[in-house]
Amino acid sequence: MLWSEKLLEYDLGNHPLDPVRVELTIALARDLGLLDRPGVTVREPVAATDEELLRVHRADYLHAVRVAPDDPFFRGYGLNTPDNPVFDHMHEASALVAGASLAAARAVYSGEVTRAVNVSGGLHHAMPARASGFCVYNDPAIAIADLLAAGAQRIAYVDIDVHHGDGVQEIFADDPRVLTVSLHESPMTLFPGTGFPTEVGGPAALGTAVNVALPPGTRDRGWLRAFHAVVPSVLRAFRPQLVVLQAGADSHQLDPLANLQLSVDGQRAAAIAVRDLADELCGGKVIATGGGGYALMQVVPRTWSHLIATMTGDPLDPATLTPPSWRALARKRFPDQDPPQRMTDDADVGFEPWQPGVGQDPLDRTILATRQAIFPYYGLDPMDARD
């Protein structure tokens, strides 16, 4: 587990991406005893160096990130916009988030640990020379690039944020060593407007970008049906050495910035499904990051505490009560809200597996479109439910 109070300094001000969501996550995980489990260590990260950042970002962009906070009229590189306002020590705070994901990735790749978590990370929209979607430096991409430089040959990036993981996909579009898989709300209805099933990778890496563009209103059962109809088959064919998971919590029904309808229970099931695939395919090796999530107290702390539990041992019983000490902190931060009493939304996460020709609703058409776009690259039959 990578954690430092300094990670809360990635603070865009009066903005949906409020670091209180990370503060409350760590507090809940700690009060639940998850950070004291046998074998769990909490390490303080160090900031990524320019050399490490330059594996993904351009030098002129790093310079812009450094100087923009001192110039109230700065424009360019996606900075000083409503989505990406500048803030004091922006470079240092962003580099520390990237450094946490780098440390997590190196610990897993070296075999020092099997899984590692950086809930402050997952800033997947940042481009090589542009801030985007609340993201300054693309920490998942920086971690992946570092592993490639260290000799990794097959890395699977799985993104379950409600928004398309466009930055990571674009950065590795032509690199056959990186498989990017994103399940997100349809680009027809949500930022960033990319992530169609027909986006399958660059000319040198066709088939390595996998996009499941879910219709607005998709609930747990549909999301899980789509996941299991696409992701296991592709990951098994790709045979990753490790998995990088971006676990954005903004697919929840309470999230104010998107239109999917998942529960905390569904998000918990998604994290378990990714972990189980990693157990099957690559010795359990997972680097997990946070991501989006704007129901700051009601959702994010519970979803990411389930993520931490799943990555550090046995998944947490959904019926677990939230500790009184955590509820007191949550009330202090949000005096006008009642904190959740339990770690569940009491949702049923059972689902019917996808079958060709059975459903003709928008979700099943989405599943089929992704399978038809991707499966032939791996010698799989899009119409065979066994694939």
Automatic annotation (TrEMBL):
Pfam families named among the record's database cross-references: Hist_deacetyl
UniProt xrefs under SUPFAM superfamilies: Arginase/deacetylase
Keyword RNA-binding: no
Organism ancestry: Bacteria, Bacillati, Actinomycetota, Actinomycetes, Micromonosporales
Domain (Histone deacetylase) ranges: 15-310
Pathway(s): Ketone degradation; acetoin degradation
Superkingdom of this protein's organism: Bacteria
Keywords, comma-separated and alphabetical: Acetoin catabolism
The family this protein is said to belong to: Belongs to the histone deacetylase family.
Biological processes annotated in GO: acetoin catabolic process; epigenetic regulation of gene expression
Protein name: Acetoin utilization protein AcuC
PANTHER family linked: HISTONE DEACETYLASE HDAC1, HISTONE DEACETYLASE HDAC1-RELATED
Recorded name of the encoding gene: acuC
Gene3D superfamilies named in the record: Histone deacetylase domain (3.40.800.20)
CDD domains per record: HDAC_AcuC_like
Single GO molecular function: histone deacetylase activity
